[in-house]
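Ligand-bound model needed. calcium ion.
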Amino acid sequence: MPDRPLLIAHRGASGYLPEHTQEAKALAYAMGADYLEQDIVASRDDVLIVSHDIHLDRVSDVATRFPDRHREDGRFYVRDFDLAELRTLNIHERLNQDASGPAFPGRFPVDKGNFGIVTLQQEIELIQGLNRSTGRNVGLYPEIKAPAWHRQQGVDVSSLLLAVLDQYGYRSKQDPVFVQCFDAQELKRVRGVLGCRLRLIQLVGENDWGESATDYDAMKSSRGLVDVARVADGIGPWIEQLYTPAEIDGQPVSSGLVRMAHDAGLQVHPYTFRADALPSGFDSYHELVSWFVDELGVDGLFTDFTDLTLDVLDSLG
Ligand code: CA
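Prediction:
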C-alpha cells in the first residue's frame, strides 16, 4: 500500500457517474483509488446488492416500473424485490431528499444514461478482474447497512457478507478489505460471534441521525475509543467531527478526535471529501484535503473525487 493516506472511492467515482454503478467503480479504479466502497443491502431472495439506501426511489426508476410495490411509507425497498426484478431497473444520478431535483446539480444528468444495479459478487469480480489485468491490488470497503433493520426483515446481512468475502478469498487482516458499520453492537458481533478476522472500521455518526442505537457521544471520548479498539482497527468519522471552523483569518482547530483515536491504536478514515460540497471553513478542495492530511494526519479519505484528491496528495509529496 502507498506511503500516503489511503484513497477510498466513496460509492465509486460518484462525483462523475451515478453512485455504485459498475461504470463509477471502473472509473474510480482507473483514477487510482486504493479501495472501492460498497454499501451492502439484501434483496428479497437474499442476494447482496450494492446500494447506499435500503430504498430504491432516489436512484432508480422503480416507481415507474413497479408502481404498486411501495410500502405504507411510500418508499420502495430493495428487500421487497428479487434480483431478477432489480435487474430491470435503470439506475440514475441521486435525487435530493424530496426528489425534486438532483442531490448534486453539477454532476451527471439525472435523466441521461443507461446504468444497472450491481450485486456484491459482480463488483468483486470486476475488482479482481481489473487487479489481474492491471497487476494492481485494489481493495474492497463494504459497509453493512442497517443490520438491525435487516434482521427485522428476516435476513442476517453480516453473515451473508462474510460468506461472500470468504468465497472470494478475503479472510484475514492481510487481505485488502475493510468492513465498516455504524452499529457498534453489530461490529462486536461480527468480530466475536461471527469470528471475522478482517479489518473492521467503526463508523461514527451523530446521535440525532438515527443510524443505529449506538451512542456516538460516548464513543467520541478516550474511553469510548479504547472500547472501539477492542473490536475495530479504525474509525470512520464524519469530517465535521474532526475540527472547528476557523475564526476570521485563522486556522481550523482540531477537535482532538484524531489524536485520541491514534492514541487508542485506531486508524482514522473520515468521510466524505467532496470538491463540489466543501465543509464549512474551507475555501478550496486543496485547502481542505491538505489540512486533513498535514495537520490532522488522517490515515485514509473517503472521497467522491479520487482524481482530485490524488492530485492534492501528490502535490503534498
Ligand atoms: Ca457508505
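The two ends are 16 Å apart (CA to CA).
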